[in-house]
Design brief:
Length: 248
């Protein structure tokens, strides 16, 4: 079994047994899966150590067993397991859900940025992960701006976003979108969804577009990851609505 197959089973075990040890997890895994074999222990060890690095698990089971291989689900890990945000700790399933939500329209650059952002998130590099996810958001704004290019008729309007992102450019794009013929429901979602993407971008950009090194918390980055699939899908739906149903 590969890690992609093991992760959801491990999450299921941890929900039922938040205080456990590595060997017990392996025993429970054997009961859940007929395809688990002895040599899969290395992949399982990698999954468990990743969860330790991410703060979902911590060493120790109780006051008498404080060290590895005993482990327990942390408060953060319990929250992730309860509200479904553990999805961000399962990169393969996260990417699959993103692809399913957006479909064939999804730009490969957005997908690659998300994959790299998740890889950094899983090893605790919060700053790097949010920079990469913000790059995916910049690409979405760029695509939206290009879709709106025929509407950029007024003199002095900014060019499509390519290179340095700025708040002024994003605000201009939002203004132009709101002039399009949109449904009431879509129009009401434009500012919340696009401002959410802009907030993500500005964690690694100053208002003038200059790059800066962010210092986000783990929970902040997790929140960005959880919101991103819906924001991404909204941008592609918006491009379709702006162009009257034609492919952007």
């Amino acid at each position: 079994m590969d890690k992609q197959s093991l992760r959801p089973l491990v999450f299921e075990i941890l929900k039922k047994s938040p205080q456990t040890h590595f060997h017990a997890i392996e025993n429970d895994l054997r009961k859940l899966s007929d395809t688990y074999e002895r040599h899969d222990i290395l992949a399982l060890q990698e999954v468990l150590w990743e969860l330790l690095v991410q703060g979902v698990l911590a060493p120790g089971k109780n006051s008498l067993n404080l060290n590895l291989p005993f482990v327990h689900v942390t408060d953060y890990g319990a929250q992730c397991l309860d509200d479904g945000s553990i999805l961000a700790h399962d990169p393969d399933r996260y990417v699959a859900r993103l692809q399913q939500r957006v479909g064939a329209r999804l730009d490969e650059r957005v997908l690659s940025s998300c994959r790299e952002a998740l890889a950094d998130f899983l090893v605790g590099s919060w700053a790097s992960s949010v920079i990469l996810l913000a790059r995916a958001a910049e690409i979405l704004f760029d695509e939206l701006a290009r879709t709106l290019t025929p509407h950029f008729k007024d003199e002095g309007s900014p060019q499509a976003l390519s290179g340095r992102f700025s708040r002024g450019q994003a605000e201009y794009v939002i203004e132009k979108v709101l002039r399009a013929d949109l449904s009431v429901e879509t129009r009401a979602s434009v500012e919340p969804q696009l401002n959410g993407l802009m907030a993500l971008i500005q964690t690694s950009r100053d208002p003038d577009g200059s790059p800066r090194w962010p210092r986000p918390s783990r929970d902040q980055v997790l929140g960005y990851f959880l919101l991103f699939p819906e924001q991404c899908a909204f941008v592609y739906d918006l491009m379709k609505a702006v162009t009257g149903g034609a492919e952007a």
